[in-house]
């Protein structure tokens, strides 16, 4: 197995979280297996979450943390995003991170389009993995919510900028997991990390 450059984003805004522990399990196993790994913790980043002007012509200057995030995305061959689902969506700070950092000219090109008429992605040649945690049972997430957040993350965010395929691994019942379940989840993501998947 060849070594990969892997970027892991822990998208939970708290300093201690189950989401963070899974992101770290993935990163630690990947390092141990010989991959090059960069890990960013959302809670460590200081930036204005508000896109503000609402147009591409008058963008706010990016804070150093957001510049580093973009550098890590460009460097990576494989991108891992770990996030909880809150109210059916992303935590506000993680959504703000995507709003502020994933901009035209760096992550997609509005002057060139795909055959479908979408802006051309600029972060191509990379694969992705989403670790999605929620309290919602998996069957409810699929049947009633149609995997809405998974689709947003996979297709409307990662694949939109060129990171594909982006595979989704879900973990449900996270507020009150049964005995031994967290250890099994950590082992599951460690296996992914070791293989760079």
From TrEMBL:
InterPro entries: Flavodoxin_fold, Flavoprotein-like_sf, NAD(P)H_dehydrogenase_qn. GO terms for molecular function: NAD(P)H dehydrogenase (quinone) activity. One of its GO terms (cellular component) is cytosol. Keywords: Oxidoreductase. The keyword rRNA processing does not apply. Residues 4-179 form the Flavodoxin-like fold domain. This is Azoreductase.
